[in-house]
């Protein structure tokens, strides 16, 4: 266990050196929020106080939470670093060490994500407060529950991205799979709550990985109830176990196909 | 003059055939890149479909107008990177001193650099725009106008890229700036113009050419206006000249990387 903490600590220290890159990289995060604030102001401006049961502040804060999970936690590992290691054969350097490859990548991820969140959390709060103001009915006492749900969402997303990355054992270029995965999460979970979709689609979204990764955390922040919390956490735990099992299964199948030429 | 143009077209053709056939060696990856890019673009229709249940019109656009916006944005982006696939690497070629290998070849440097690579996923972007036209049941006039705008907007996009990448000749450490400028041009091009206020609109017709790339073309395709049409053409010509001038004057500051390199 100690070795994994060491890896995470090393990654954290490394990433603190590149804080300026994180700052500049956040412009994309801000642009999406800016565009959607404009869009929602236009839609709510046409005389609607509520859309699908949400007011404008809830809609914007939902987007901010979703973006925090999806964009604010993009790291080398989740952006396709595993695919690069498989393709280049660099994965073999880790295979020869007494450390599990997936947990090693998880430690790397945690180290990097802590630095990113140290920047993105204050940024998200500042942007939300400046662009749209306080969230209606927000209760500070529920923050610990929100943190649990957001953290679980980030971890489920990590293991699913690892699974996609490991498909590089079979596919030369996994980037199209990353686009599709990213788009799936973005379209159905980040931009707005599932309730805006037709009921049949919304019902599927609410039990899909999207619910575990973004819809659930967003919903808990903008419209908290203990009943919702329990149902979201249950879905998250199911998807967490499934995604870990899937990542390990794909890894074990794939690593048998690995051919590394010495150099 | 005609022979020179013919030679460049021949060079362009050879590059594209070579690049595409090289990529087709990995058949699964080749097909996946194209098909998934089409699906990737199509997924946004789900978002817009949901948003249009709230209002029949958003920023002056109806659902079919947003589809047209997506079609032109996607196909012109695709055209840009199928034809000028190396456009997004100009910065790294300058920083790493990798222009040497192109400088030694007896062809126009900028043209040679830009066309020497081909983005395969961008083929999916081009196709997506035309799929939308089929869905919209476009008439022959719209097909012709759309195709013309795909070329003109694609050139605007490519030349905008050349201008910002050429700043690397003058400034250091602007990788993130360049990435952000490219991202801004694309991000704004897929939302209706009417949702943005005055200052942002001003930016979209000056610093970032999204207005000329997609908003005016969509407006002309919805209702033909010769004045606006000529404005887009004039802007494309102006931007091409600006890109060539900025790139060539920056080139005087270029330092060789002394790299031994070969291109197949």
Verbal overview:
The complex is a heterodimer of chains A (263) and B (264). Chain A has 12 helices and no strands. By secondary structure, chain A is an all-alpha fold. Chain A has one domain. Chain B has 264 residues and is mostly helical. Chain B has one domain. In chain B, 71% of the residues lie in helices and 0% in strands. In chain B, helix 2 packs across helix 7, helix 8 runs parallel beside helix 12 and helix 11 runs antiparallel to helix 12. Chain B is globular and about 60 Å long. The two termini of chain B are 28 Å apart. At the A-B interface, helix 2, helix 3 and helix 9 of A face helix 2 and helix 9 of B.
Keywords:
A: 263 residues, B: 264 residues, 12 helices
Topology:
The complex is a heterodimer of chains A (263) and B (264).
Chain A: H1 2-16, H2 19-25, H3 27-45, H4 56-70, H5 77-88, H6 91-95, H7 101-131, H8 143-166, H9 175-190, H10 199-205, H11 209-222, H12 226-255
Chain B: H1 2-23, H2 27-51, H3 63-83, H4 90-95, H5 100-103, H6 109-115, H7 121-136, H8 140-166, H9 175-188, H10 198-204, H11 210-222, H12 226-251
Helix pairs in contact in B: 2-3, 2-7, 3-7, 3-8, 3-11, 8-9, 8-11, 8-12, 11-12
Write down the Rg of chain A. 19 Å
Order of helices and strands of chain B: HHHHHHHHHHHH
Which structural class best describes the helix and strand composition of chain B? mainly alpha
Strand content of chain B: under 5%
Number of domains of chain A: 1
Largest interface: A-B, 34 and 34 residues
Write down the oligomeric state: heterodimer
Strand-and-helix sequence of chain A, N→C? HHHHHHHHHHHH
The unreliable regions of chain A are: none
What value does the average pLDDT of chain A take? 89
Supply the number of helical segments of chain A: 12
How far apart the termini of chain B lie comes to 28 Å
User: Roughly what percent helix of chain B?
Assistant: over 70%
How far the N terminus sits from the C terminus of chain A, by CA atoms, comes to 31 Å
* Rounded mean pLDDT score of chain B: 90
Low-pLDDT ranges of chain B: none
- Count every beta strand of chain B, where a strand is a DSSP E run of 2 or more residues: 0
Q: How many β-strand runs of chain A?
A: 0
Rounded to an integer in angstroms, the radius of gyration calculated over CA atoms of chain B is 19 Å
Tell me the overall shape of chain B.
globular
């Amino acid at each position: 266990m100690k070795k994994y903490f060491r890896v995470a600590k090393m990654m954290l220290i490394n990433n603190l050196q590149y804080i300026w890159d994180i700052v500049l990289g956040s412009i994309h995060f801000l642009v999406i929020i800016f565009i959607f604030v404009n869009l929602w102001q236009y839609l709510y401006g046409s005389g609607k106080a509520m859309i699908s049961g949400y007011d404008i502040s809830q809609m914007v804060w939902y987007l901010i939470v979703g973006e925090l999970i999806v964009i604010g936690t993009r790291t080398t590992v989740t952006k396709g670093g595993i695919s690069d290691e498989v393709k280049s054969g660099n994965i073999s350097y880790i295979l020869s060490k007494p450390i599990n490859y997936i947990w090693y990548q998880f430690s790397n991820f945690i180290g990097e994500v802590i630095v990113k969140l140290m920047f993105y959390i204050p940024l998200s709060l500042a942007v939300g407060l400046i662009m749209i103001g306080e969230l209606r009915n927000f209760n500070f006492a529920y923050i610990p529950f929100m943190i649990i749900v957001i953290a679980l969402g980030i971890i489920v997303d990590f293991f699913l991205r690892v699974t996609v990355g490991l498909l590089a054992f079979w596919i030369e270029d996994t980037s199209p799979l990353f686009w599709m995965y990213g788009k799936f999460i973005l379209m159905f979970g980040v931009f707005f709550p599932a309730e805006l979709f037709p009921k049949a689609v919304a019902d599927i979204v609410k039990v899909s990985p999207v619910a575990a990764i973004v819809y659930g955390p967003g919903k808990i922040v903008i419209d908290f109830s203990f009943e919702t919390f329990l149902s979201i956490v249950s879905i998250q735990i199911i998807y967490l176990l499934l995604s870990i099992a899937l990542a390990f299964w794909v890894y074990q199948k794939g690593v048998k196909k690995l051919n590394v030429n010495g150099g | 003059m005609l022979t020179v143009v013919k030679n460049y077209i021949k060079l362009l053709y050879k590059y594209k055939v070579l690049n595409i056939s090289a990529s087709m060696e990995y058949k699964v990856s080749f097909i996946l890149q194209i098909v998934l890019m089409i699906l990737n673009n199509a997924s946004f229709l789900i978002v817009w479909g949901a948003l249009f249940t709230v209002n029949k019109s958003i920023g002056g656009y109806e659902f079919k107008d947003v589809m047209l916006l997506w079609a032109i944005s996607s196909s012109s982006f695709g055209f840009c990177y199928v034809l000028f696939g190396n456009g997004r690497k100009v910065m790294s070629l300058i920083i790493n001193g990798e222009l040497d290998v192109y400088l030694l070849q007896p062809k126009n440097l900028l043209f040679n650099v830009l066309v020497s690579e081909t983005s395969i996923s961008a083929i999916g972007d081009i196709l997506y725009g035309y799929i939308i036209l089929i869905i919209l049941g476009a008439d022959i006039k719209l097909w012709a106008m759309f195709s013309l705008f795909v070329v003109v907007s694609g050139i605007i996009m490519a030349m905008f890229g050349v201008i910002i990448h050429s700043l690397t000749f003058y400034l250091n450490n602007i990788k993130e700036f360049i990435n952000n400028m490219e991202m801004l041009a694309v991000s704004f091009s897929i939302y209706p113009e009417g949702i943005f206020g005055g200052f942002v609109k001003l930016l979209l017709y000056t610093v970032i050419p999204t207005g000329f790339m997609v908003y005016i073309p969509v407006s002309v395709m919805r209702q033909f206006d010769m004045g606006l049409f000529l404005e887009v053409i004039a802007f494309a010509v102006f931007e091409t000249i600006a890109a060539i001038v900025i790139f060539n004057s920056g080139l005087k500051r270029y330092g060789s990387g002394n790299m031994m390199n070969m291109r197949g």
